[in-house]
Amino acid sequence: MTETYFVTGATGNVGREVVKHLLANGKRVIGAKLPRENTVDAENLEYRVFDFSDESTWEHCMEGVTKVFLMRPPHISKIKRDMYPFMRFLAEKQIEQVVFLSVQGVEGNKMVPHYDVEQGCIEMNLPYTFVRPSFFMQNLTTTHLPEIRDEKRLMVPAGKGRTNFIDVRDIGEVMAKMFFDPSNIRKAYTITGQTSFSYQEIADHLTNGLGTPIRYAKPGMIRFVAYHLKRGRKLAMTLVMLALYTIVRLGKGDISTDTAEKILGRKPRTLDEFIADNRALLLGEAS
Predict the structure, then answer these.
(1) How distant, in Å, are the alpha carbons of 9, 182, 216, 241 from that of 186?
(2) Among residues 272, 234, 285, which one has the least CA distance to residue 140?
(3) N or C: which terminus of the chain has fewer CB atoms within 10 Å of its end residue's CB?
(4) What is the pTM (predicted TM-score) of this model?
(5) Residue ranges per domain, the chain?
(6) Radius of gyration for the chain, computed over Cα atoms and rounded to the nearest angstrom
(7) Residue 120: DSSP 8-state
(8) In b/e form, how buried is each residue of 141-171, taking b as 16+ CB within 10 angstroms?
(9) C-alpha of 142 from chain center
(10) 274 bridge partner residues
């Protein structure tokens, strides 16, 4: 019988990659979607409406499911209120494995919401696997795209701190592989790209790859928050971003591991490869 997996965030950057690799390995997938999202089902893939805050959506999504890919939606910061009820539901269903998309350094940082998710998994005795990636390269083509594309600058309050970037395509493949070996249960893995960069170096790589100057602006905390609020980003999400970049500014984000390479059986994608793959988007030329 084909195993059935439930993927939260199935239409997002990481979720799409997890779905792709599960399907490639012959698994049946139920993908979470929002009511307003237009999705197309495929062989072994069915999308169903899911909401952490709406218990009426849970049972239908979990029908026949044995394993779950769990991620925190960006807009959720009150984890105990908004995610713990569903996590308790998973415990009651005796799910075989929950693979959670966490964040690098979470084990020593109670400021980020991922910490509460991890602690909840442990306290509820869920059969968890924590994957803690470094910063997403795709942050440059999502969160920071308008400032790069339209303003030719990178607005990050990280000072001279260094951080490691990993491509979401590699993260998704790693997450899927976590399900295929039961020895991964109750373990945590920090995965990174090959190299750490300062944000000035990232701006230099963008400049070289795009053929146009990209400046690294170093906003203070207040200016950074004001910048994102003015552009419509919610305060809770902005503060989470600020907490993560504060880790970098304090020199605690300069971590590189070979874990991703060992799991993937190849080296992770480089920053220059990512920039080349997304050049048209970063320049505003994508159709």
Answers:
(1) 22, 9, 40, 27
(2) 272
(3) C
(4) 0.91
(5) 4-133+167-191
(6) 19
(7) H
(8) bebbbebbbeeebbbbbbbebbbbbbbbbbb
(9) 12
(10) none
Question: What is the amino acid identity at position 132?
Answer: R
CA-nearest of 6, 60, 16 to 37 is 16
**What letter represents residue 253's amino acid?**
G
Q: Is the pLDDT of residue 79 over 80?
A: yes
Tabulate helix, strand, coil % of the chain (nearest 5).
Answer: 45, 20, 40
C-alpha to C-alpha distance for 210 and 220, rounded to whole angstroms: 27
| Residue found by looking up tokens 């990178």 in the block | 154
Record: fold of 4-133+167-191: Rossmann fold (3.40.50)
Neighbours of 125 (CB within 10 A): 9
Which pLDDT does position 287 carry in this prediction? 65
The candidate with the shortest Cα–Cα distance to 166, out of 132, 200, 215, is 132
Query: Is the model's pLDDT at 237 over the cut of 90?
Result: no
Q: By the 8 A CB rule, do 280 and 146 touch?
A: no
pLDDT digits (tens, 9 = 90+) for 109-128: 788 899 999 999 999 999 99
